[in-house]
Structures are given as structure tokens and as C-alpha cells.
Amino acid sequence: MRLLKLVPDNTNFPFVSLRKWAFGLTILLTLAAVALVFARGLNLGVDFVGGLMIEEKFVTPPSTDKLRSAIDQLHFGEVRLQTVGTDGKTISIKLPPPQSSEKDATNKVVQAVQVAINKIYPDATFSKQDAVSGKVSGELIWKGILAVVLAVLGIGLFAIFRFEWQFGVSTVVAIMHDVLMTLGFFALTQFEFDLNIVAAVLTIIGYSINDKIVIDDRIRENMRRYRKMEMPEIVDLSVNETLPRTVMTSLTILLALFALLIFGGHVLRGFTAAMILGIFVGTYSSIYVSSSLLISLGLRAEPKADATTTGDKTERVAFKDIP
Amino acid sequence: MNEFPRWKVVSILVFLAALMALAIPSFLPEEQTNTWGAIPHPRISLGLDLAGGSYLLLEADVNDLANSRIDTMRDQIADAMKRATPRIDIGDISTRDGKISFMVRDVTQVDAAREKLLPLTGSGVGFTAQRDWDISVVDSTRFVVTPTKAGLDQAIDRAMSTATDVVRRRIDKLGTKEPTIVRQGASRIVVQVPGLQDPTALKELLGKTAKLEFKMVDENPADLEQASKGIPPLGTQLLPNSDTGGTILVKRSAVLTGGDLVSAKQSFKQEDNSPIVDFTFDTQGGKKFAKITTENVGKRFAVVLDDHVISAPSINTPILGGSGYIEGRFTVQSATELAISLSSGALPINLKVVEERTVGPDLGRDSIEAGVKASIIAVILVIAFMLVTYGRFGLYANYAVVINVVVIMGVLAVLNGTLTLPGIAGFVLTIGTAVDANVLINERIREEQRRGRSVIQSIELGYKEASRTIFEANATHAISGVIMLLLGSGPVKGFAVVLLIGICTSVFTAVTFTRMLVVHWVRRTRPAHLNI
Prior knowledge:
The complex is a heterodimer. Chain A is α+β, with helices and mostly antiparallel strands. Chain A has ten helices and six strands. In chain A, strand 3 (80-84) and strand 4 (90-95) form a beta hairpin. Chain B has helices at residues 6-21, 24-27, 30-34, 48-51, 62-83, 110-121, 149-173, 199-207, 221-228, 283-295, 332-343, 361-390, 392-414, 421-450, 455-487, 490-525; strands at 45-46, 53-60, 90-96, 99-104, 133-138, 142-147, 180-184, 188-194, 212-216, 236-240, 247-251, 256-257, 261-268, 275-281, 301-305, 308-311, 323-326, 351-359, 418-419. In chain B, a hairpin with a 3-residue loop joins strand 7 (180-184) and strand 8. In chain B, helix 1 (6-21) packs across helix 13 and helix 14 (421-450) packs antiparallel against helix 15. By secondary structure, chain B is of the alpha+beta class. Strand 5 (125-132) of chain A pairs antiparallel with strand 18 (351-359) of chain B, so a sheet runs across the interface.
């Protein structure tokens, strides 16, 4: 049986020679992403701004204009309507937090909205409801930011501990690039940014770091094997050697993610979209941010004479044994 | 290559089979597993986003409690000074800036006043070092009583555990299955009620103040006879008796209510050390109670909570001191429960819903369907892809992936985990990342074979070199998983749990298990070349 080979053996793409251009492009894109976030802002869900979100399911796709005017008449503040899902039958209705400080103020708003909708569409049924107070949403933002910062720091520390400091720095920079690009994507598309997206961002960080560690690991290995080789050559060699794996893994994950995007229902759509973007961004930044940065940070192929861990020693012995 | 002796093969297989077996009960209907008795049958429970239901985060109004605590203390101080012999004249009593301040008119009584204050402001449990209130004297006659942080925290803590209990009692009345009510932090309660159709009923129930009433029991034989026909006489009503079961006839009008009560606590009767409930009325309630008990010795009164009689003790002697005890067929626990519900007839602290998430049962069902469908399609796609790329080695990786999915379910069930919608996404993602380990190994084997190494050397080196990378890659991946687990809320936590379990199990299935299969195959067929 002939097996599929997506990447031919012994590729030799000159990744590194393009790195000056790539740096320019990366910086440009990252700045554009940041600018987008500031200019357009993120479409923050009720998780992060507080307020009410009611999701209604209709038997046939409803008219959003009719719904809007019906809910506007209740005077609960600015209404935002959004069709979710692909069949147009589910509508999410967002309202600011109720002004009254009464205990069951939210309850009353929800009931009033429900009554107003059922007047026009008697068959509409409630499918989901989120109400988050301003205080809690503030905490959720803070927790989300803290989680991302801790993840980046924790992984950076791990990389410094297991590798040289240059690996730690380059990895952290690359991850920050990934996070900013993801935010830029959400600012551009105005997809709703909620708690699930924070989980997606953390997962992107996890995937991206996974990808970088694989290449970093190979760079470290090649640095020991070819002590005389220049750093750009080593990076090129390592990226090329790991290229089949990079392609295979990102493709399998993308296959799984597209299955989720198409068949997984609308609740997970934002999460999956973010992940798919993250796979591309993470793979790109492995080659053109973290690996390229290693060269600029002055990593040299001259490991210290004394191996710092016993693990290193055994590895080196093993290489000598094999002709 | 001889590192898989028979005992090792057997133990790996048994281990995996055992973990997979743990997943079985989750696929069987609950009625069936319930009949298993002693056989362990852990189940994966579905999160609210899949089962449908409500999540409520309640926050207590701590300032309100602090203020009412100060007001109570002010009243107690005024009362104590009035009752002192000789009476201590005080004036200009005020509560400002969270402090109580008052003046003792006669300088010579300052020491006496302090003597009176000390027992009021202690922690109430003997002479411990901690004080609930600080007392200071300024300008020789002005007392300033300030609540200490420790005292307030303790009061909040007590109020919160009572409130949690009140909330639990109330939700239990809804008759929903498996609600969870957990205190979170100093002043919050998380309520999760699965399968609830209408969250408004739940919120209304939590918003209500429980109604506690003391009513006289009607034991007039004529009335009882009429009531037994189903028509209670005018001015009486039949109430269900939660103490003994059945119903009990009581007067319709309450003689006292929860508002008249100051405290109730479980204690023991001096004579026979049986558990009882001590209670105290406020001044007015005490007077009323004294009058009623004097007039009704030998009769019974009913303690009614939300129209359920929780006990109906006989009045043995007039109770004049504004406090008394209820005896009954109590265990320490049931007496404590009664004391708690007595003292929490009304919520001791105002609760407000600060976060609410409700998922209707239809959406939950749709999400499960979509999630399962997506997972199955993802598995098929990945399996096909691995097979055409790596042949036999892909097949082994596929065995590992399928086993891994079942093992994750088993582990999730044992850990009492909850499967959420993001958790399903975690599954799909784990399928993707788990094959990464095999991709790393197989690519490395390809590479080593290309370098001209023998079959056995290629496999050895492939596994060895890739294992280090796999370990490092998974360790960093786990870091972000742990952070999600620690900082994430509900559904995100569900995602992190699946991800973390998947990282641990996939290392075992993708590395150890496939290696065993490969070694077995190589030993059996001794191939000269690997088609990989």
C-alpha cells in the first residue's frame, strides 16, 4: 500500500532568509490587530459587560425589525438583536442590566420581553438566558486577563527552565503575538467575545506552545549534533525536519475543528472559529516569530561543556553509540 | 526491544480495560445501574448547558448585615444600661460611621457601664482572646463601641451558613433533582438546579422571606371531628405535619411570628441530656409569649414554617423569661436543623442574584446531539487521515485514539466530572492533539529510516526522541489547562478537566500502548523495511 505523503522527504525551504520580510509583516499585522481592537472594540458578551442575554427559538425565521420595535417599546434600554445559528430561527436579545435595584428586576424584564415576543410570535420558546451584574462581569474580565497572563508567564518560565532563556523570551513574544492576532480577529469580525473565547485563547496558547516546543526541541537537538553550524542554518534545518509533523498535526486538528464548526451547533461556533484561526496563527508564529527570534536573540550553537542535567548527558551518550 | 514481557503486556491491557469499563455505566440508563448495588457505577453528570437548568450566583448584602448588627447592639446596650442596678443613665446615643457612641451622664458610673458592656461585646463563647467589638472611652464619659473585623466576619460567616441552609431548604421544596448549593467565598452562594423548566419560580422562591409562625393547636374533640371530615371549623386550618407526618389542626391566626424571634440554637436538656432547641424572643415577643404560655398550660402550640408544622410541643410550664426550649423526638442533627430553620425563618442576610444562566431543555438536547455528531465525524476523519498517511502505524494510533476517548470518559466518571458543551469541544480537540504524539513518533521513525537505520533502531530512536518532545509539549499544554481549571468558571472548567485528563491518558495510550503493539508486530513478522 502506498502511503500518503503530504510533505516530500528532505525539504529545504529557506524559511530563515525570509525572516526580515516576515518580521516586517508580523509587526505590521500585529499593530493592525491592536489598532482594530482600539478602533472597533470587541463585541463583548454579557459575561464581560454585564446585562441580560435572552435567546429565543422561533418556528420560522422572525423579522428582527418587528422584534426590535416590540422590545424597544418596553424601554429597557438599548436592545441588540443578533441571529445565531445557520437557520435564522434563533435570535439572541441583549439588554443592559436593569436600572431598578429591586431583587427581581431581572425577572421582570425577562418576563416582559417574553410576553412582548409571544404577542407577535406565539410559538417562540425560550432557549437560553444569561444575566450578569456589573460587579460579576468586572470580576470575569479580571479573571480572564489574569488567566491569560498567568498562562503566558507559566509557559515562559517552563521554557526558560527546560531550555535556554532565549527560548523562553522568544516563546512568550510569539504567544503574545498569537493572543493579539486573535483579539484583532474578534475586533474585525465582531464575533461575540465571551467566556468561551477566553477558553479558546488559552487553548490557542496551549496549541501554539506545543508547536513551538516541538521545533525548539529539534533546534536544541541539532545544536548539539552540529556544533559548527551557524544558527540560521540550524533553524532552517530544524523547521524543515519538523515540517511533515507540523503539517500533519495542524491538518488533523483542523479536520476535527471543522467537524465541530459545521456540526457542533451554534453555541460553540465562536469558540471553534477562534481555534481554527489560532492554529494558523500559532503555526506561523512558531516559524516566523519564535524560531526567527532565537537568531536575533543571539543563541549560539555552543552548549556549555558541562551538561546541566543528567538527562542531557544520557542523550549525548546515546548519540555516540549510534553510528 | 524485549521490554514488553508478558506480565507487562497483561497489566497494560488490564489497566486500560479497567479504565474503559468505568465508562460503561454512563452509557446505561440510570434505572439499570441503580440495581447494581455494591458494584461501583460512576456516572458522568451532564453540565447545565447540556442537561438544561439554572445556575444562580447569589450575593449577600454584607453592608446591610453590618448595619443591622450595629442597630441591634445599640438596642442591647440601651436595654442593658436601663436594667442595671442602679440604673445607668445614658444619652446622646448614636450610630454613625459604623460605630456606636453614647454618653454616660454620671462620671462615677463609667466603670459600671464598662462592666455591663463587656459581656455584650464579647464573642459570646467564654473568655476567648477575640472580641467582637472594641470599646473605648473618649472625653472621660463618651463610650465608642466599634465592631472588630473578626467579629463582623464571624457574624457574616454565621449568617451565610444559615442563609445557605435556608436556600437549600427552599430549593428542596421545588422537588427538583440533585440541586447543588455551595457557598463561595465569604459572601456568595452558588445554586445549580438541573432540569428546571422555569427559573423565575426558583428566583421568586429565593427572593421570598420564609414565613415562621407560632400557632395554637386546636385539640377540641368536636373541631377535630369536623376537621376529619375535611372541613376545618372557621378560624382553624389543617396543616401538614413534617414532624410526625399526617396533618394537624391549628388556629388560623398566628400568636407569634418569626419576626418576634431573636435566636434559636441547639442544646441539651439538663435532666436527661436529650437534644433540644433553645430559643429567645425579643422583648415584646417575650412578653406575648409569657402571656400565652401562662394562659395555655397543658395545651400545645405549633411551630409552623411555610405552612408546614415542624413541631408541636406541649406547654408544660409558663415561660416567662422570653426564652424557652422545644423538646421532641430530636437527634442532635434534627435539633440543629430545627434551630437553624427557626433562626433563619427569615433569611438572616439579604441575597441578590448577581449572575444567572439558564439553558432550556431543548437547547441542551440540541447541543448534545450536535456535539456527539461532531465528535463522531471528527473521529472518523482523523482515523481515515491517519490510516492513509501511516498505514499500519496509523492503525495503531487509531486504536490508541479510540481507547483514549473511552478512557477519558471512564476517568471523568470516576472523578465525578461534569460534561459540559465546551467539554465536548475538549474531547474533539483532544482527539486532534492526541494523534500529535503519534505523528511525532511516526515522523521520527520515517526520518530515522531515511537516515539508513535498521527497522529496530528506527523504531527505538523514533519512540525515544519523540517521547521527550511529547513530554515537554504536553507539560506546557497542561500549564494552560491547569490555569483554566483554577480560574475558569463552570463550562470552561468542564473544558479544562477533559483537556487535562486527555493529556495524561493520551501520553499513555499514544506512547506506551502503541509501542507495545509495534514491538509485538515487529517481533512476530521481523520486517526488513517499514512501510511508514
